Amino acid sequence: MLNHASQDSYPGDLKVKNVNFRNFRGDSDFPWMLAVINGSKEADAIDRTNTLDELKNNYAHLVNCDPHKDLIIAEIQDEVVGYGRAYWSKVVNGPLLYSHFVFLLPAWRGLGIRRKMLKINEQRLQDIARDHDMLCEKYYETSASDNELDWINVIEQEGYKVVRYGYNMVRPNLNDIPAYPLSKGLEIRPVEPDQYEIIWEAAVEAFRDHWGFSEDEWSLENLKAWENDQSFNPSLWKVAWDGNQVAGMVLNYINENENQEYKRKRGYTETICVRRPWRRRGLAKALIAESLLLHKSLGMTETAHGVDAENPNGALQLYENLGYQAVKTGMVYRKELTIQT
Q: What would the pLDDT profile of 79-134 be if each residue is shown by its tens digit?
């Protein structure tokens, strides 16, 4: 727990006085946290739309994170100016990752506050790591988009290095959608509620050989969180079946709040995956083409999704061939975590 009475118990030089760091107090903090998110996105050139209900829902389904212990809030004169959170995960056949982030309102950047909050996150992650396998590799991890210059500056000065790149991709129109037939024996069927977990587990299996895969990030808690989100609409999913087996999928959704805020008509073609036995048969491009037609029929004028720049299955080239363009770069940063004695 934080020592609320002292600022000096945490490293990092502050250039502003009267900053108080405290723990999460529960529901009363969510409006403050949402205000920090909304107050930061323009400076960071990040398109995102969050609601209070969505924020509460996400925090109700956290994995490997206790917000009452793992969340730090920065206040100045009883006004919340920033918050950060720490959590951990285990990569399958890989290292333990100790992840964190810090949001800070632009008016208070460059004064040492964000760096100090990073250090608080790292100290909390140190405490967590002491209870884990001492022989397993351990890394701090965080991420940034190419426009988050302040956060990039802070983490790079603290020794974090880029280990992976990804792209946000957009298909800027829904013209000239190609037609790709499904292979013999495969069919797309409407999704029933009792199939949600079956489809989710199939996605877990398909993504298991991707870089950085962690079962923690694909737990059923994440599915439950999505089921309570306004964008959850399985009637939009394109799932290919081979008998009673899920072969591949595109879990489409539309974020109506985001479209309204940014005055656009965008649909998302996310969670694109094909299980191993059905790969190299053109299934992914067939499902994406079906998804593009779906979004066009719903009045959307563009589609988007994210992709690992080094996806081993050639996803980036596939998406480019289908008309998607990279519009923003994201980076995953890591720094070795050594247990301090």
A: 999 999 999 999 999 999 999 999 999 999 999 999 999 999 999 999 999 999 98
| Other CB atoms within 10 A of residue 320 CB | 14
Which amino acid would we find at residue 338? T
Q: Which residues contact 18 (CB under 8 A, 6 or more apart)?
A: 76, 77
CA 230, CA 135: separation in Å to the nearest integer?
Answer: 42
CATH architecture type of domain 168-329: 3-Layer(aba) Sandwich (3.40)
DSSP state of 95: -
Residue 6 reports pLDDT greater than 50:
no
pLDDT at 2: 58
Domain spans in the chain, listed from the N-terminal domain onward: 19-159, 168-329
Query: What is the rounded CA–CA span in Å between residue 29 and residue 185?
Result: 52
Maximum distance among all alpha carbons in the chain? 68
Tens of pLDDT, residue by residue over 132-176, are 998 999 999 999 999 999 999 999 999 999 999 999 999 999 999
Question: Is 172:302 a contact under the CB 8 Å cutoff?
Answer: yes
Strands (E), 36-174: 71-76, 79-90, 96-104, 138-145, 161-171
Could you tell me the pTM of the whole model? 0.93
